[in-house]
Write a structure and sequence with these properties.
The complex is a heterodimer of chains A (about 110) and B (about 110). With about 110 residues, chain A is mostly beta strands. Chain A has no helices and 11 strands. In chain A, strands 2, 4, 5, 9, 10 and 11 form a 6-stranded mixed sheet that branches. Chain A is globular, with a radius of gyration of 14 Å. Chain B contains no helices and 11 strands. Chain B has about 110 residues and is mainly beta. Chain B is globular. The chains are: A mainly beta (about 110), B mainly beta (about 110). At the A-B interface, strand 4, strand 5 and strand 10 of A face strand 4, strand 5, strand 9 and strand 10 of B.
Chain lengths: ~110, ~110
């Protein structure tokens, strides 16, 4: 099956700092989503971005499909940004039946 | 609000007991997925429904796991003869537009 690797696994930053989270995947995809999992376990949709660049406030994401990686940028970090960030992909051949394959996540801690 | 609710939110059971979880999308979404998430890992895909048809179930973890979606709306996931290794968060998701949206999950603890 498709492989998803996220880096770094852990990241500790001071409030106000910027960060870049990376997601590498092993095959072509027709779906790539970034999620933020809050302390209660809820997965919050951040971006649907199988290719290209999107921005939403302090967050932006870029996926270079031909090179099989995606980046999530967080600017001017706030303590509420803390949590685990997941990248998840669906392979192009799946037709939806394979579900999403998740990476192991990046655990982000923003200190005041 | 993701439009997906799950019940119960927490379940504590003794080893060997059967448990059933329910997933309710707010409106009827054709595609429904179940995932399991263990501590420190990303969610792991289990099974997929297109309306009431279960189109993928080979990823269910063992024959103790089964899922249904009888009328193409809500879905249930049952685990028979629970084991301590079944302790995890069980997540339901639906597909809207191009994205999957997740419910809050059911956290299962097997003692």
């Amino acid at each position: 099956g498709i492989q998803v690797e996220q880096s770094p696994p852990d990241l500790i930053l001071q409030e106000g700092a910027n960060s870049t989270l990376r997601c590498n995947f092993s095959d072509s995809v027709n779906n790539l989503q970034w999620f933020h999992q809050n302390p209660w376990g809820q997965l919050i949709n951040l971006f649907y971005i199988p290719s290209g660049t999107k921005q939403n406030g302090r967050l932006s994401a870029t996926t270079v499909a031909t090179e099989r990686y995606s980046l999530l940028y967080i600017s001017s970090s706030q303590t509420t940004d803390s949590g685990v960030y997941f990248c998840a992909v669906e392979p192009s051949w799946g037709g939806g039946a394979d579900g999403l394959t998740f990476g192991k996540g990046t655990h982000l801690i923003i200190q005041p | 609000d993701t439009g997906v609710s799950q019940d119960p939110r927490h379940k504590i059971t003794k080893r060997g007991q059967n448990v059933t979880f329910r997933c309710d999308p707010i409106s009827e979404h054709n595609r429904l997925y179940w995932y399991r998430q263990t501590l420190g890992q990303g969610p792991e895909f289990l099974t997929y429904f297109q309306n009431e048809a279960q189109l993928e179930k080979s990823r269910l973890l063992s024959d103790r796991f089964s899922a249904e979606r009888p009328k193409g709306s809500f879905s249930t996931l049952e685990i028979q003869r629970t084991e301590q290794g079944d302790s995890a968060m069980y997540l339901c998701a639906t597909h809207r537009g191009y994205e999957q949206y997740f419910g809050p999950g059911t956290r299962l603890t097997v003692t």
